[in-house]
Design a protein that fits this description.
alpha/beta; Glutaredoxin; five-stranded mixed sheet; 29% strand
């Protein structure tokens, strides 16, 4: 997993509108890039909703929120509409961005090991440097911790 001090990987990505853009376009200012496992699941819905509810405060602090999962553009569109998510979601269907950040890890569920996306958040400055990392995020209280790091 990338750490504070590492550089933002330069990749082309696809957002929830189907638009192709580069990761450097995302980081025009402070970027809060959060990775989550799956649209419309309980933990991911809670996390997205908490970022949604704090969206204006992030904007006041000059930060852009972008969510990333391996779901499709269409899935992201449904998820955003259903929960009123105001920030972009990246459809990393080929897992290139997830792999570049090192958030695909071995997980164990019900005694079965598999590879999955570790809920993680990265704060990236306008110069493209990672300044803060939260690996293995627990949803409750996380958004407040990210906001506090921007003060």
């Amino acid at each position: 997993m990338l750490q504070a001090g590492d550089r933002l990987p330069k990749l082309d990505v696809v957002d929830d509108t189907g638009r192709h853009l580069s990761t450097t376009e995302l980081a025009a200012g402070t970027l809060v890039l959060y990775f989550y496992p799956k649209d419309d699941t309980p933990g991911c819905t809670s996390e997205a909703g908490q970022f949604r509810d704090a969206f204006e405060e992030f904007e006041r602090r000059g930060a852009t929120i972008v969510g990333v999962s391996r779901d499709s553009v269409e899935s992201h569109q449904r998820f955003k509409k259903k929960y009123g998510i105001p920030y972009p979601l990246i459809a990393d269907t080929d897992s290139r961005l997830c792999d570049a950040f090192g958030v695909i890890v071995e997980k164990t569920m019900y005694g079965i090991k598999r590879m999955g996306l570790a809920r993680s958040t990265f704060v990236i400055d306008a110069g493209g440097s990672i300044v803060k990392v939260w690996p293995n995020v627990k949803v409750d209280g996380h958004v407040q911790a990210v906001l506090a790091s921007l003060a």
